[in-house]
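In response to reviewer comment 3 from the previous cycle, which asked for concrete evidence that the modeling workflow produces usable outputs, we include below a single protein chain processed end to end. The sequence was submitted unchanged, and the resulting structure tokens are shown without manual editing.
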Amino acid sequence: MDYVPILILMALGLLLGGTVLIVSTLLGPKLPNKRKNQPFECGVPPVGDTRQRFSVRFYLVAILFLLFDVEAIFFFPFAVTFRKFLEINSFIIWEMGFFVGILLVGYWYVLKKGALEWE
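The workflow returned the following structure tokens.
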């Protein structure tokens, strides 16, 4: 019984979303032409082949960003309960220092390998 409000909210959301889609399909303008059917990308007219090759460095930087970004998520619970950790013991602070050390070693390794240089 505790989940009934959540189910009602989900049902209302689905109903509203479906209603908006149906109404816009029925009432929306239907005047297709060549210019409207072209793909539109940030105000830049589409030219060339869409299957161009990207450098591997682009993907490497993207993966490294995700890696360090996801690891940074672990700082939030620590920051929220920092004062409580100080009252209990200092082991958790040493553990967080070890975690930051591992991050710095990884970042140093990436810099030394030149993975972030964009040439």
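Residues 56-119 form one domain. We consider this sufficient to address the reviewer's concern, and the full set will be provided in the supplementary archive.
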